[in-house]
Amino acid sequence: MAIAGKTLIILVATSVLGSIGAAVGTGLLLRGKAPVAAAGPADTHKAPPEPVVRTPLTIYPLGELVINLADPETNLRYAKVTIAVGFEEKLADDDLKIHNPVLRDMVIRTVSKKTFADLHKPDGLDKLKEELRTNMDKLVPKTHICNIYLENFAMQ
Fold this sequence. Notes:
- The chain has a 3-stranded antiparallel beta sheet with strand order 1-2-3, covered by helices on one side.
- The protein has helices at 2-30, 93-97, 100-111, 116-120, 124-137, and strands at residues 58-68, 78-87, 145-155.
- The protein has 5 helices and 3 strands.
- It is of the alpha+beta class and 156 residues long.
């Protein structure tokens, strides 16, 4: 009976400790403070931060443009784009009309440096939009351009 009694005590003690450990772990998980596991190879690479999405208060259309592309093998490639610019600030159309020629010129100069292959890549238009946003943001004082909208885009 002595061995059976010791076995019973060990089983009960193990059950109690396991229950306490499970309760503590569940409590920490439900509170969002789970214990941190030892750092392994998967923990060394953190995901890039999500980009900040800013909502424009003014969207100003630049209209349609037909632009020759910089394809060296032929001068017959062109892009037809309709672009609108999103500003973080609330701006009057009259204030933006004076910047229209400068912004359209920036679009023409930027797109005309691209080849058909540059723009046809999976991320080609995203890169173009970011380049346009960065370049245009410098041109209009006291404003911040938060997005470029391609309302229409075609290449041939």
